[in-house]
Structure formats: C-alpha cells, structure tokens
Design goal:
CATH architecture of the largest domain in chain A: 3-Layer(aba) Sandwich
CATH class of the largest domain in chain A: Alpha Beta
Number of helices of chain A: 20
Number of helices of chain B: 22
Structural class of chain B: mainly alpha
CATH superfamily of the largest domain in chain B: MetI-like
Mean pLDDT of chain B: 84
Mean pLDDT of chain A: 88
Chains: A alpha/beta (about 450), B mainly alpha (about 425), C mainly alpha (about 280)
Radius of gyration of chain A: 24 Å
CATH topology of the largest domain in chain B: MetI-like fold
CATH topology of the largest domain in chain A: D-Maltodextrin-Binding Protein, domain 2
Distance between the termini of chain A: 69 Å
Number of strands of chain B: 4
Shape of chain B: elongated
Helix content of chain A: 40-55%
Number of strands of chain A: 16
Low-confidence stretches of chain A: 1-25
CATH architecture of the largest domain in chain B: Orthogonal Bundle
Strand content of chain B: under 5%
Largest sheet of chain A: 6 strands, mixed
Number of domains of chain A: 2
Number of domains of chain B: 3
Radius of gyration of chain B: 34 Å
Oligomer: heterotrimer
Strand order of the largest sheet of chain B: 1-4
Structural class of chain A: alpha/beta
Helix content of chain B: 55-70%
C-alpha cells in the first residue's frame, strides 16, 4: 500500500517535466487517422495526411515553432469492421483524430456528437477549400453546417464488355454512341436485361453472368431505385416510393428469372467477381469509377478502353439515366485536445491541396474534388479520369445525410435481398419493407 | 469458524467481482438498453440539446412564431458582442475598427460575418476570426447545449420568452439522446423478419441437436466401441479436431471445400459441372453447410459423453449377451441404448443453450445468407447491435433481441437445475469448523 | 441371425472401420489440404498440387501495408491466452475450494449461479459488456478482453474445480487443521497438490479456448496494436484485395500448430472436459 502514493508522486513529477519540456523544446503531436474501404490502390487516403504533416511542420518551422507531427495510419480494407470499430471507439472516447469515411455517416455521428464541424476550425473561403466542387461540399454538410471535407469523388457507371456486345450485333460506331444513347434515355434498363439475355443465349457468357452487379450491399443499390424513379429524401424527410422500389426489386427478380443474374450472387467472394469482370466472363456489370484502377493495376486488364464501354446507369421505367457519387469525407472526431483538433483540421485542409489529392484520384481512379485538380497534368492526361469526369459527374446524385437513413437502408437492403433470392415475392418484400419502415421510422419517412 | 468464513469470502471475492462485472452488470444493462431507442446517433451516455433544422420543423406545428424566430440564423454586430470581443485580448485595433465600421450590421450566415471580419485592415488569423464571429452569434440553430438549463438560458438571453410548457416541448424535440420506449419489443413481435429468424433458430438448433449432437454422436460412439482400441483412438481424435481448431481456421477450411474455386467445385468440374459456390448457392445448400459445420463440432462432445457412459456399463453384460447369442444390433438395442437416457438428456440440455448463443460459425461462413436464409437469433442480435452499413448501430433493438436469449437461457438453466437435481449438487460442505 | 453364437472377438470390425473412414474422409481431407496447400501451388482447376513453394509463408517475414506485424500479433495472442489461463486457474481454484469446502454466506446461491452461468449464452451480452469495458476504460486494450474472456469461462472453471475438490478426501485437510496449520496453508500446501490434474485440465482448456477466441477480441479490441491471430486471420480473409487461400492456410497452420501440440501432449486431461460439457 506504500507504493501507491510514491507512484503517484512520480507520475505527477513526470507529467510536470513532460509539460515543461513541451513548452521549452519541441511540440510533439500524434495524429491518428483511420480510413475504411482502403485497399492497396487507396493508400493515399492516409498518406495524404502524412504528406500534409510534413508540409505543416515546414510551415511551423518558418514561423519559428518546432512542431513534430507523427501520423498514425490505420487502413481498414472493408467497411463493416471499420464502422463497427470506429463507432465503438468513438463511443469509448478512443476515436482517432481524423477519419475518412462515407459521407452518410455525418448524419448519425453529428447527432451523437461523435464528430465536430470542420468549419469551426478552417476558413472555408480560403484555398484550397474554396475551389472544391460546391455539390461535394454540400454532401459533406448536414443541417447547413460543413462537417467534413470531401476526400474523393467517384461515380458509379454501367460497364459493357465490348467483344460480347459486338458479338450480339453492335458495331464499333454503335458502341461509341452507346453512352450518349444511355444519357438520352434511348437505351434503358430493359435493354440491359435484353442484351444480357442475348449474350447468354449465344453462349458468350455462362448462365448468370449476363448482368453482374456488386456482390454485397452498397450505395449502388440506391442507384437502381433512383433509376426507376425513386427519391431518397425530400425537404429533410426520407421518402419511400413504393412503386419505384417495386420496379427496382422487380428488375433483380426478373434478372434472376431470366437467368442473367445468379440467384446466389449476393455474398459470393469479392475476389472472384473481380477476376471474372476483368476477363470478360461477365457481359454487363455495374461498378464504380475506382474499379478502373483495380481492373488495370491488379487484375491485368491492360487494354481497358479496347474491351470496355462505360456509361451512366440507364433509365428504368419512370426514371432517368443517372449515376451516384459517394464521396468519402475527412471528419474530425470529438473528444480531443482543442490544439490537436486544430492541427488535424489543418492537415485535412492541406491534404485537400489539388497536387496532393490528385495522387489519390489518379492512383485509385477516383474523381477529383476540385476544379484546379482537373487541370493538373497527372489528372488531365489520364484518359479515364478525364472521360469519367465529363461523362458522369454532371449527372451524379448522392445519398442524403440523414440520421435515419441507415435504418432505411438496412430495411431496403433486406427487402431487396429477399426478392432477389426468391425468399419472398417482390410484392411481399415491399409489403414487409413498408410495415417495418412504418414501425421503425414512423413519421420520419414519407411513404407513397 | 470466523477465520474460515473470512478466508472463504476473500477467496471467492475475485470470482464474485468478475461475475458481477461481466455477467450481472451486462445482464442488467441489457435489460435497461432494451427499453430504449438507443442507437449510434443517440449515443449511449446520454445526449445533448441541439436546435437542428429538423427539430424546428417539428416545432413549427405547435409554435409556428417561435420556430420561425429561432430559424433566423444571424450574426449581429452589437454592443454586447463588441464588449465580448474587447475582452478576448486581441489586438485592440480590431475591435476599434469593427466598432467604427460595422456596428449595427447583421449577417445572415456565419460565413458572411467571417468574410467581413477577414476584410478588416488588421486581418485576424483564422482561429481569431472564429473566436470573434462566435461573439456575435445571435442564433441558437445548430448549437449544442449539454443540459436543458443551458439551452433555456441561451434562449433567454436571445430574448425568447417561453412558457414552461413550451420549454418542455422545445427540450423534447431538440434532445439528441435516447428515450425510454417499449417499441423494441413490439417491433420484435410484429416484424415478419423476426418470425423468420425465430423459425431459423428453432430449425438450426433442432437439426444440429438431433442429427449431430445426439444421433451422429451416438453412431460414432457405437462404431468406435466395436473396433479395436487403436483405430478407435485415432477416430476419436479426428472427431475432436473440429472442436479444438480455432473457429476462424475451421470455417476457412469449409470455405475452401465449398467455395467457387474450392475442392467440391473443382471435383464436380471434372464431371462437367460449372463451378459454383456450393455453400451459398441457395438457401438449402447454406443450411446443409451450417448444420454440418456446427454439427461436426457438436458431435465430439456427444461422442465423449456417450463413450464414458458406455464404459460405465459392466463388461460382463456384453459377455453374457454374447454367450446368449445376441447380435450386435440386439446389444445396442437392449444394453447400450437404455443406458443412454441421461447422457442424451444432458447433451440435449447443454447443447441447446450453446447452440442458441453460438453465432461465430455462421457469421464467418454464410454471414446469415444467402438473403438472410441462415440468420439465427443470436446472429441477428449481433448484426442489429454491432453492424450497420450506414454507421448507425441499433443498440436498443439489439439489446432487446439479446434479452430474449438471456431470458430463455435463464429459464432453461433453472429448468435443468431441477432436472439434474440441484439439491444433491449443493450438499453441505465436507468440513465445517 | 447368421451371427448367432459368434464370439465377440469374431464380430468383424472392418465394416465399421470402413464406414467410419468414409464419414471421416471430409475432415481428414480438409486437414490434409490445410497443410499441403501452404507449401505447394496448384494449377487452377486441378486438385493435385504441382509445385513446391514457400511464398505462402511470406507473411512471416514481410508485413503487408496496413496489416500489423505477425510476430506482434502472435505475441498478443500468447499474452492473451496465458493471461486468461492464469486468471481462470487462480480465481477458479480459489472459488472452487470455497464452494466445495467452506461455509460462506450465500454459498448455495453462488453455486446455483455458477451452474446457470456455465452454460449461459454470454456472447449475447456483448453490447453491454462493451459498455462496462468502456466505463472502466479498458475498451480496445488486451487487459479488457482478457478480463472479459476469463469472466465468461470462469463459471465452467469454478464448476470443474469444485468437482475436483469434492473428490479430495477430507481427512487430508482434517490432519492439517488438527496440526494447527491455518486454513489457507492447508489449502495451499495440502489440498492444492491433490487437485493438480484439475488445474491442468482447467488451464489447458482455458488456454485453448482463449487461443481460439474470435468474437470478443474482434469487437472489444480491434486495434492493430492489440490484435490477436483470430482477428488477424479473419481480416486477411475479409480483404478481397489479396484473396489467396494458400496464404490464409499458411497463417491458419501457423495459428493452429500450438493447439495441435497442446492437444497431442495433453489430450487425456482435455478429454475429461470436452466430455463433461463445455461451450461451443
């Protein structure tokens, strides 16, 4: 029992020593940053903060301060364990200083007070923040407050395997015109199923490989709802458009019935999906702009443009051709020393510098976040970045930042999975979704 | 007497504390959470008061005027704000210039106010700009207050005179934390998916229990009984492997067996079948694998329990029956099986609880898929409480689902205590000083 | 009734062995390939490996970006498993003795509690357990998971230890007490040696379950500094950027070897417990 007071004394002494040394000599700060969904192509999500730290140290040195910043980087390759770890860590007040995550987390996390608005720390009218696309800044805001800074942008196109398209009768000229046709609404979701079926009937692809979408839950599936005329949010209230959702569910049920999509498609191993779309085993598929990086760098599809056409997602019945952008945002988490937060905010700001952000955009085939970025050689000389930006970004929607959107999403996905796998009929799924939305969200959602 | 009791208390204290901390408290907390609408958004440790745009929407119906007034975000360069700025200890020139050029100005947004401040001759640094603009903030929109009192006093200083009833409703709609509710249970009771999950759970427990934990284990016991002891030991060891193998590796092996590029797929490929994911191909397959994966683990326990019960049967009974010319089947039927009543009951009781709670294997193999076909109750509780793609974990509902299992667990255990005659288990201690 | 009057030695055993071999084949196959695949390469679409390679074992000397170092993870796992074992053995050998021999208030109640808890679906309490850990500041620390894991397996440990103490003849203790030794000394130097097999069994069992534990560290200690092998391996599998069964299996073999060694050396102790009923 005697050792405790002594121990306390020593800790206090050490603390005093430590604090004086901070004043007298250098300032050492550790900034931790986590990011979700970060594979080998996306490492600049974290590295950018490290580059920014070097820059900030130099700036401090010129001002005569000795600032040392250590950046602790934690990438999570998937989303589920990332969000679980992050929410629990934040709840336990052990969150990292900076997190790069999907913008949809802003709603619930700001309500919970897990994140603080970045506009409290940075001047949004200053470079480079004032050059970031207005709609992206909008997506990084909630309740009119700017919480995060967009880290990347992307959009989700429809991909067509050229050789198979040619084999079912499209000429090169037809294929060149296809993106425009999609944009004009002349090529619709019904045509997607039709062409997928043709490819299969001709034996170009195996059964179930005609239309080959994402294998797991993701924002992509809201795009189908939008494509069939659905709206996610109106005036701050979530919207469940029964007719549009029915058409979206029906699309997948039909795809399975026609045999162009596998019934057990959801949950198949991701690696296999990549290999298959890279080698022409799939006819038409749906993905994201960043897929380009993976297909070309990791999966060996060197002649991308010779083999693949990409377009907006075609219009479905009752909707328009569209795409969805799901920017990641850098967020500042609550519960840290004010000084650390200020430095973290500075790092985010510097990391948004076009020259730094472009490294991520081009390496991972995401889209740039600012106008100036698109003028940097690395970006403008990259065919993919240029074409994808022009063809897709102007038509991009985003999911709403709404604290209850996650609940809606979970229920919507459950219904889609049920009608896809045939566990329930489309009507029954929609009925169950409606019941569950009513009982969970009540008047927070407009059902029509 | 006294010292021994003291010693007893001291020696049992660590166990008591750990059980209190990690069993009793969690049980109580689960009960508490199940009565709330707690999610990531509401936080666990309580919320704050924030006049967000959506709360103003809610207020509009009951007190339109006040809501309208509150919605006015504005930054007013007034005398009170000037005083505060002067108190910040910044360069005096800033305040002087502000007072001279801008007193009386009103800005709609913070950004506009800050632009003005940055336009001052002595341009303050960004942190200072933020500090100065804050002094002129005359709006409550989006500010967070950690308590009701702070909220009300802020409203008061801004000139909102509210009645107590109005205060209450403002506090209600602006509260970001969780509330008490019994809705979780009505959701569980009414949701069609929950019924499905319940059905899955019963099916899962019943199938694994009947097919593997008892029937197959019995078969293993009998087979190993009728073979020389060397091969019997080998087979027993083989069947214990699933139990001692860490679950992540164990499931990995099954995946390798059943995946698209896995063993079965390649093997069937030799016969001309296209490769497919045999585990997730359809709900039926997924069920077969879920039952096999868990069954192989469970079989070993039954095998050992039954084997030791078998050893308790006097060898002479077997010899006697053989002399009488009994066939193997007759031995099984008339000698072995009658002795297995208690072991079977024991295994059934024990494994029911284990199976109800175990979701590791399903989580790692099918994740409850395809299409929630193999989602069982404990896994659904885990998914609800700790997994949400959009970052909003539903702690309250998850806790309510867990509570259902907790109650089942307690009821069953108490029932088992009766069956296995609790009285003899707690017989008085041997030595009493 | 052809077998009538056959002596027992002549019950033919080969059909039984054959049947059991057939049903055991999938298991044997899975374990055999678990080892073979780590040191060989197999052409796609083939079942027979065609070349020898060590590349699946690269994880031992190369740390991929964003993944913690394997040796740190192994060390964590070792610390985790041995600490859990120590805690369970210490606490349950004390509590088991009390429940077996000493008359403390609430003994019956405690014993009933242990009975109920030792088969309790405690994993379902994980959300609440997280809250408790968070309150005492041990979320995302090894100590936190160690305590939780030890607490969850404690009722079984206590129950088993009580069983072992019950079999110790009380004359031993009586002799000690009569000689004037304190009750604690009697326990420490006379009774404890008698239950060594029990301590071995509980200890080994605790070590193996802790070594295998997945969901608790996954949820309660996900940080890369405190990661254990189960979480490391499952994260590796979940990452679809480097999907390679060979590497997964190499990590798996690396992870399972200690288990197999312990099992091979001490399986007679373990049989008691696995037969007596444990979780899983």
């Amino acid at each position: 029992m005697n050792i405790l007071p002594t121990l306390k004394c020593m800790t206090v002494a050490a603390a005093i020593l430590a604090s004086t040394s901070v004043l007298a000599f250098a300032k050492d700060i550790t900034i931790s940053v986590w990011s979700g969904g970060t594979g080998p192509n996306d490492t600049y999500r974290l590295d950018a903060i490290e580059i920014a730290a070097q820059q900030l140290e130099r700036e401090a040195a010129i001002r005569g301060e000795d600032l040392k910043i250590k950046v602790e980087k934690t990438p999570y390759s998937d989303w589920e364990s990332f969000k679980q770890a992050l929410t629990l860590a934040a709840e336990a007040k052990k969150a990292p200083n900076i997190v790069a995550t999907g913008h949809e987390d802003i709603g619930p996390w700001s309500q919970a007070g897990l994140i603080v608005p970045i506009e409290d720390y940075v001047d949004l009218d200053s470079w480079p923040l004032n050059d970031i696309y207005e709609n992206l800044m909008e997506i990084a805001s909630f309740n009119g407050v700017v919480y995060g800074i967009p880290q990347d942008a992307e959009s989700r196109p429809m991909f067509f395997w050229k050789p198979h398209m040619k084999a079912i009768g499209y000429s090169d000229a037809d294929l060149d015109a296809l993106p425009q046709k999609v944009q004009d609404g002349a090529y619709s979701m019904a045509n997607v199923l039709e062409d997928a079926k043709k490819m299969q009937d001709k034996g170009l692809v195996q059964p179930g490989y005609g239309f080959y979408p994402r294998t797991s839950n993701g924002p992509d599936y809201w795009q189908f709802y939008t494509s069939f005329g659905g709206t996610m949010e109106e005036d701050g209230k979530l919207v469940f458009d029964k007719a549009a959702m029915t058409r979206a569910y029906q699309f997948f049920a039909d795809a399975v019935k026609d045999g162009v999509t596998k019934k057990n498609h959801i949950g198949m191993p991701g690696d296999q999906w990549w290999k298959e779309v890279a080698t022409g085993k799939a006819g038409i598929w749906h993905g994201g702009t960043w897929h380009y990086a993976r297909l070309v760098n990791q999966e060996g599809l060197t002649d991308f443009f010779g083999n693949v056409v990409f377009s907006l997602m075609p219009a479905g019945e009752g909707g328009k051709a569209n795409t969805l952008t799901h920017p990641l945002v850098y967020l500042l988490t609550a519960g840290h020393e004010k000084e650390d937060m200020a430095i973290a905010a500075q790092l985010i700001k510097i990391a948004s510098e076009p020259r730094i952000n472009v490294l991520h955009a081009v390496k991972s085939a995401h889209l740039g976040i600012s106008k100036a970025e698109s003028e940097i050689d690395l970006y403008s000389s990259d065919r993919w970045a240029r074409e994808a930006t022009e063809r897709l970004l102007p038509y991009a929607n985003a999911m709403p930042n709404n604290a209850d959107f996650g609940t809606y999403w979970t229920i919507m996905w459950k219904g889609l999975e049920a009608s896809w796998t045939g566990a329930k009929t489309v009507e029954a799924s929609i009925g169950d979704v409606e019941t569950e939305l009513k009982s969970t969200l009540g008047d927070k959602i407009i059902i029509r | 007497m006294n010292t021994s009791r003291m010693l007893g208390l001291v020696m049992i204290a660590p166990a008591a504390i750990m059980i209190l901390l990690f069993f009793l408290m969690p049980v109580v907390l689960t009960g508490v959470f199940s009565m709330t609408n707690m999610t990531t958004a509401t936080g666990i440790s309580g919320g704050a008061y924030q006049i967000a745009p959506h709360s103003l929407n809610d207020l509009k119906s009951t007190m339109p005027d006040i809501a309208e007034q509150m919605a006015q975000p504005r930054y007013a360069i007034d005398e009170a704000g000037m005083k505060a700025v002067e108190g910040l200890g910044l360069d005096a020139g800033i305040a002087t210039e502000l007072r001279a050029k801008h007193i009386g100005d009103v800005f709609q947004t913070r950004r506009e106010a800050e632009r003005m401040i940055k336009g001052l001759d002595q341009r303050p640094s960004t942190p200072d700009v933020k500090k100065i603009s804050e002094q002129f903030n005359r709006s409550v929109v989006n500010s967070r207050f950690s308590s009701k009192e702070e909220l009300f006093s802020a409203l008061d200083t801004l000139g909102f005179k509210l009645t107590d009833a109005q205060k209450d409703s403002v506090a209600d709609v602006t509260y970001t934390g969780w509330n008490w509710t019994t809705e979780n249970f009505s959701r569980i009771a009414s949701s069609p998916d929950m019924a499905r999950v319940l059905f899955n759970t019963l099916l899962y427990v019943a199938l694994v229990l009947v097919l593997f934990n008892t029937a197959y284990a019995m078969l293993l016991m009998i087979w190993t009984h009728y073979m020389p002891s060397a091969p019997a030991t080998i087979f027993r060891s083989i069947w214990l492997l699933p139990r001692i193998t860490p679950v992540v590796i164990y499931v990995l092996m099954w995946k390798w067996l059943a995946w698209d590029t896995g063993f079965i797929s390649v093997l069937m490929g030799k016969f001309g079948y296209p490769p497919k994911n045999y585990m997730l191909d359809n709900a039926y397959n997924a069920w077969v694998f879920v039952v096999l994966i868990n069954g192989f683990i469970g079989a070993s326990m039954g095998m050992l329990v039954f084997s030791s019960a078998l050893k308790a049967i006097p060898k002479s009974q077997f010899f006697a029956s053989e002399v009488d010319g009994a066939s193997r089947w007759q031995q099984i039927r008339y000698i072995i099986l009658p002795q297995m009543r208690w072991p079977i009951l024991f295994v059934t009781c024990y494994q029911t609880l284990s199976l109800l709670a175990s979701f590791n294997e399903i989580l790692l193999s099918t994740r409850g898929g395809p299409g929630k076909a193999t989602e069982v109750w404990s896994l659904a509780a885990y998914h609800t409480a700790l997994n949400n793609y959009a970052g909003n974990l539903e702690y309250g509902l998850g806790a309510a689902m867990a509570l259902v299992l907790v109650v089942i667990g307690i009821v069953l255990s108490l029932g088992y205590l009766r069956i296995f005659n609790y009285g003899t288990l707690v017989s008085r201690p041997l030595i009493e000083d | 009734m052809a077998e009538k009057s056959q002596p027992s030695a002549n019950y033919s055993t080969w059909p039984v062995i054959l049947a059991l071999s057939i049903v055991s084949a999938p298991l044997v196959l899975m374990y055999a390939y678990l080892f073979i695949d780590t040191i060989t390469d197999t052409a796609a679409g083939s079942l027979i490996p065609d070349s020898f390679t060590l590349r699946h074992w690269r994880f031992l000397w190369e740390t991929p970006a964003g993944k913690p170092n394997i040796w740190l993870v192994t060390l964590n796992t070792l610390i985790f498993a041995t600490s859990v074992t120590t805690v369970i053995v210490l606490v349950s050998s004390m509590a088991g003795y009390v429940l077996s021999r000493l008359n403390v208030p609430g003994r019956g109640f405690f014993l009933a509690g242990v009975m109920v808890l030792h088969a309790f679906p405690s994993v379902t309490l994980i959300i609440a357990i997280f809250i408790v850990l968070q309150m005492i500041g041990l979320y995302n620390s090894l100590i936190g998971v160690i305590l939780v894991k030890a607490a969850i397996d404690l009722p079984l440990g206590i129950w088993l230890m009580k069983g072992f103490y019950d079999t110790v003849p009380w004359e031993i203790e009586m002799a000690g007490v009569v000689d004037g030794a304190s009750r604690f000394r009697v326990w420490r130097s006379l009774v404890l040696p008698q239950v060594r097999p029990g301590i071995m069994a509980v200890g080994l069992f605790s070590f193996l379950t802790a070594w295998s534990e997945f969901i608790l560290p996954q949820v309660l200690a996900p940080g890369s500094k405190v990661q254990v092998l189960s979480v490391y391996l499952s994260a590796l599998i979940a990452d679809d950027n480097n999907f390679d069964f060979g590497t997964f299996k190499a990590v798996g073999v690396f992870y399972i070897i200690p288990v197999l060694i312990v099992y091979a050396l001490f399986h007679k102790y373990l049989m008691n417990i696995y037969g007596g009923g444990s979780k899983g």
